[in-house]
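Appendix C: a fully annotated inverse folding record. The material below is reproduced so that readers can follow the format used throughout the book. The structure is listed first as tokens, followed by the designed sequence.
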């Protein structure tokens, strides 16, 4: 690492250096503020049509459920990316040549398939490190060699299960988003079956410097919004979506998920109350972890309305003055625009009265805070008029199902008959978040506009004691389905499991958890083995005796979700009328949308003339001073596109080997501007997967020397 470059980087991170000079993409989402913005102009509206592949790197290891979601970072000409099973890889950013590769699973039987959205760079001017989250560990690697920095944690890694004041063996934790650096601190959220406390680690030693309790303890603010002992037993309220930092004010911002993790997302009888600081935007003093303000977007979440992305820090104009603000998108499809220093909404809000729950033991919140402006970026309520008209058969089938569902708009609790969740579990907004253009004050939001069904089922205690099958139904069916078919690729099918895994492998997976699969250690080894036998051999023979089965003492498990069901027509297309995905530009000064387009196509429907209907899309955009908005995201057409950022006009597109469900990055090296994106596919088992990073640039004849 050259001293000059390091000093430059330190200046960027501390906010002392004007971001407009940055040729790199040194931080997840471009900068600590999470703007996804680049001042580069070599590639611009006039020449983007000439973009060509400059290089392509195949990380290897693409598989049926692999998803590459990482936003590459680029520091001083080196790019740091992740492979599909979380190998950390350094590339020459100009050529794509491998500089080093670190495999955290070297020699391990089970490879984590956790999603990961990127890594973190840190330097103190002498040393430089890359931090990568893999399973329960934060690895600290030497940025030059890729070797573990032995001084960090225990021989180069920190176990995130430690320091939470619970038995680490009972916890399962991982962080799909990279931490953020403030001065010498590495600040991290997390996800999994653990309390979602936000922690700052010493970037050099890995020692915990501060902890903010997202599930407050006695004497802490927000404690009264939970049952008294919740802090000892409830999991969740975690910031898995990443963090944003205002270096000038020394504030770190975290957006948290719901309380209760996994199948407890949907039944809150064991956590009655508003559940602060779940589903909240938190502003914390980055040096101490002290709470400055909080804004809760959903009270007592029973819909899995995790905040899916960190806020984007922006500056907007109000009454002729500049206001330091932030933009937060949500899965519900609304946007909160808050004063960054106070947490007050800059647009009017209402306390909306919402439907009550008819599930025994549940007490839904009676009011929820909803913005009256800006308008939602996804539809808010499914009515008969909004059902698909793709074919008469599709319409009739969907209408018949719809008439048996509860559909009364946002915050209608889950029910036995099924509640329409619209937008669905995957938003609305998703992990791609918002990009922000400081030149125009436009924020860009890509969104899904499809419905899911939230159906709850009761776990009768006696089913659990009946058979292994009963045990499976109680413990596993919420994700893998009563029929073992899951909802691939998010929740894999277990139908032909014996072709892939043995009883031992599955028992081990149940013991340790893996990727997004929680640990079931608390069941004890006998029951874990019984379950493993059941799913591998599909044998329901000799049961553990009923008295060996742990009675279900836990009210929180009485109702669980009956699978993550997309509301589809009989041909597998969304049950709602298009658009099924959109891309919008929101003017933050006025709260009005400047443009909105349907985003994405199904190639087979487009071939029949059904185009411009939008599809599900994941991963965010990048906006540039060159007047462009780059985005992949659409999961069926595998396109990577550049739009005119002011009008939404499509200026360039290319078709990739698989979809790019990740946020791109753009940077300059050797006088050449590149745009790079991860090409991984996934999110639907009908689409191809890959494990590539593809970089685009202009051919030499279209570049002017010194272009920025
Ligand atoms: C909260 C949701 C959830 C629950 C509950 C759950 N699983 Fe899983 N399971 C997953 C996910 C997600 C994966 C994929 C892991 C990954 O690749 O990240 C998975 C993977 C697996 C796999 C590996 C499949 C493969 O092809 O690699 C097995 C086996 C499995 N689960 C068994 C079980 C059993 C048995 C239970 C009940 C004791 C269970 N799961 C409960 C979410 C869940």
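Designed amino acids, in order:
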């Amino acid at each position: 690492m050259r001293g000059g470059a390091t000093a430059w980087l330190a200046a960027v991170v501390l906010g002392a250096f004007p971001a407009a000079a940055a040729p790199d993409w040194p931080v997840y989402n471009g900068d600590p503020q999470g703007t996804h913005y680049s001042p580069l102009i070599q590639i611009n509206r006039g020449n983007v049509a000439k973009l060509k592949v400059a290089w392509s790197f195949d990380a290897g290891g693409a598989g049926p459920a692999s998803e590459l979601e990482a936003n590459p970072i680029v520091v001083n000409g080196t790019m740091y990316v992740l492979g599909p099973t979380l190998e950390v890889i350094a590339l020459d950013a100009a050529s794509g040549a491998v500089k080093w590769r670190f495999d955290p699973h070297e020699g391990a039987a089970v490879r984590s398939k956790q999603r990961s959205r990127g890594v973190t760079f840190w330097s103190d001017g002498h040393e430089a490190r890359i931090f990568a989250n893999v399973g329960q560990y934060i690895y600290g690697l030497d940025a030059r060699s890729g070797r573990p920095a032995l001084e960090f944690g225990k021989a180069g890694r920190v176990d995130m299960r430690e320091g939470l004041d619970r038995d680490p063996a009972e916890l399962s934790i991982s962080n799909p988003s990279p931490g953020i650096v403030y001065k010498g601190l590495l600040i991290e959220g997390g996800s999994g079956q653990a309390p979602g406390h936000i922690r700052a680690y010493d970037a050099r030693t890995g020692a915990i410097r501060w902890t903010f309790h997202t599930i407050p303890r006695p004497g802490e603010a927000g404690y009264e919004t939970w049952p008294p002992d919740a802090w000892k037993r409830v999991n969740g309220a975690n910031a898995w979506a990443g963090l944003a930092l205002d270096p000038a004010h020394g504030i770190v911002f975290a957006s948290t998920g719901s309380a209760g993790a996994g199948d407890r997302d949907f039944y809150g009888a064991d956590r009655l109350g508003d559940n602060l600081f779940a589903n909240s935007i938190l502003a914390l003093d980055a040096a101490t972890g002290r709470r400055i303000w909080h804004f809760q977007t959903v009270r007592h979440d029973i819909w899995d309305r995790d905040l899916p992305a960190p806020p984007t820090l922006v500056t907007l104009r109000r009454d002729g003055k500049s206001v330091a603000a932030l933009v937060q998108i949500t899965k519900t499809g609304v946007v909160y625009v808050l004063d960054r220093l106070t947490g007050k909404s800059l647009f009017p809000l209402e306390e909306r009265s919402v439907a009550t729950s008819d599930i025994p033991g549940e007490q839904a919140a009676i009011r929820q805070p909803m913005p009256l402006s800006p308008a939602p970026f996804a539809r808010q309520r499914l009515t008969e008029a909004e059902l698909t008209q793709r074919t008469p058969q599709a319409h009739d089938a969907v209408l018949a199902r719809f008439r048996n569902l509860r559909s009364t708009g946002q915050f209608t609790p889950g029910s036995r008959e099924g509640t329409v969740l619209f937008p669905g579990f995957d938003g609305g907004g998703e992990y791609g978040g918002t990009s922000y253009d400081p030149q125009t004050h436009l924020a860009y939001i890509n969104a899904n506009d499809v419905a899911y069904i939230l159906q709850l089922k009761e776990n009768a205690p006696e089913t659990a004691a009946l058979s292994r099958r009963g045990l499976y139904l109680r413990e596993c069916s919420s994700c893998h389905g009563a029929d073992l078919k899951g909802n691939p690729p998010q929740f894999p099918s277990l139908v032909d499991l014996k072709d892939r895994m043995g009883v031992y492998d599955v028992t081990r997976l149940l013991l340790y958890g893996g990727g997004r699969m929680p640990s079931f250690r608390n069941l004890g080894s006998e029951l874990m083995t019984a379950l493993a036998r059941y799913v591998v051999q599909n044998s329901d023979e000799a049961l553990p005796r009923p008295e060996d089965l742990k009675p279900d003492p836990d009210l929180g498990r009485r109702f669980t979700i009956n699978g993550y069901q997309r509301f589809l027509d009989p041909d597998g297309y969304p049950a709602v009328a298009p658009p099924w995905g959109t891309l919008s530009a929101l003017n933050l000064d006025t709260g009005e949308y400047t443009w909105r387009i349907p985003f994405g196509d199904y190639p087979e429907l487009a071939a029949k003339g059904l185009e411009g209907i939008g599809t599900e899309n994941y991963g965010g955009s990048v906006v540039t001073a060159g007047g462009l908005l780059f985005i992949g995201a659409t999961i069926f057409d595998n396109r990577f596109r550049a739009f005119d950022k002011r009008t939404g006009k499509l200026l360039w597109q290319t078709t990739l080997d698989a979809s790019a469900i990740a946020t791109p990055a753009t940077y300059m090296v050797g006088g050449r501007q590149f745009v790079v994106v991860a090409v991984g596919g996934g999110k639907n088992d009908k689409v191809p997967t890959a494990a590539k990073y593809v970089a685009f640039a202009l051919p030499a004849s279209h570049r002017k020397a010194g272009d920025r």
